[in-house]
């Protein structure tokens, strides 16, 4: 059974079109180098060589390890210049998930989906994650990485008001409500650096 999420959780300080906010490229990273290294190390375990990967809310870096070769690596983000600068992507598209939560990919297209330190910007997260489940193959998996930095005016109200454990619980509820299973929490936070909290979930095997 789905858990009801209050609509007021998804308000933002800046409700202007996201396309305006992301119009200018930001070729910066949003977590510490040590935390990036921890995320890359986890991806090396989580994403098998040869897998087809969907990097949602992508930018100019995907944090995938450089020592493995993947199949398709599709990046979906908000700024064309940032996406074009990402050497790990085999393809990319500009797509506003807050305006259109349905993904522009065919069903059963990917083995893994990644959302890195961006889940706090989605105003329709359950709808987006339902679409992610659809484009993942049977038995596919998603990893949502959470830290504590954000663009404050574009983050949803919940991420301003909830503490760390409550944010993790909220994202777990997103996954449950969107049909994912086997939801696990993993803490890979380095010492003396930005935290790294990971939620991993599976698409149930389809008949």
State the share of residues found in helices, binned by percent: 25-40%
CATH superfamily: Vaccinia Virus protein VP39
Strand content: 15-25%
Main sheet makeup: 7 strands, mixed
CATH topology descriptor: Rossmann fold
| Elements, N to C (H/E) | HHEEHEEHEHHEE
As laid out across the biggest beta sheet, the strand order is 3-2-1-4-5-7-6
Please provide a written account of the structure.
With 207 residues, the chain is of the alpha/beta class. The chain has one domain (7-202): Rossmann fold (3-Layer(aba) Sandwich). The chain contains 6 helices and 7 strands; from the N terminus they run H-H-E-E-H-E-E-H-E-H-H-E-E. The protein has a 7-stranded mixed sheet. Strand 4, helix 4 (125-135) and strand 5 form a beta-alpha-beta unit. The longest helix has 14 residues, at 33-46. The radius of gyration is 16 Å and the shape is globular. The two termini are 21 Å apart. The mean pLDDT is 90.
Write a brief caption for the model:
By secondary structure, the chain is an alpha/beta fold. 26% of the residues lie in helices and 22% in strands.
Name some characteristics of this structure.
7-stranded mixed β-sheet; 207 residues; 7 strands; 26% helix; alpha/beta; Rossmann fold
SSE arrangement:
Elements: H1 18-21, H2 33-46, E1 53-58, E2 73-77, H3 80-84, E3 91-94, E4 110-116, H4 125-135, E5 136-146, H5 157-161, H6 164-177, E6 181-187, E7 197-202
Parallel strand pairs: 1-2, 1-4, 2-3, 4-5
Antiparallel strand pairs: 5-7, 6-7
């Amino acid at each position: 059974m789905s858990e009801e999420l209050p609509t007021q959780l998804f308000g933002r300080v800046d409700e202007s079109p996201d396309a305006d906010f992301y119009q200018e490229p930001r070729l910066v990273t949003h977590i510490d180098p040590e935390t990036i290294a921890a995320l890359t190390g986890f991806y090396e375990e989580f994403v098998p060589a040869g897998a087809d990967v969907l990097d949602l809310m992508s930018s100019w870096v995907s944090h995938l390890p450089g020592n493995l070769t993947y199949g398709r690596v599709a990046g979906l983000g908000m700024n064309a210049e940032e996406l074009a600068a990402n050497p790990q992507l085999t393809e990319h598209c500009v797509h506003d998930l807050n305006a259109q939560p349905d993904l522009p990919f065919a069903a059963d297209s990917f083995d893994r989906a990644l959302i890195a330190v961006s889940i706090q910007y989605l105003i329709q997260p359950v709808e987006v994650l339902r679409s992610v489940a659809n484009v993942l193959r049977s038995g596919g998996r998603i990893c949502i990485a959470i830290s504590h930095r954000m663009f404050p005016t574009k983050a949803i109200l919940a991420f301003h008001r909830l503490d760390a454990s409550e944010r993790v619980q909220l994202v777990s509820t997103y996954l449950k409500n969107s049909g994912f299973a086997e939801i696990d929490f993993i803490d890979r936070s380095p010492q003396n650096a930005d935290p790294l909290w990971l939620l991993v979930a599976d698409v149930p095997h389809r008949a």
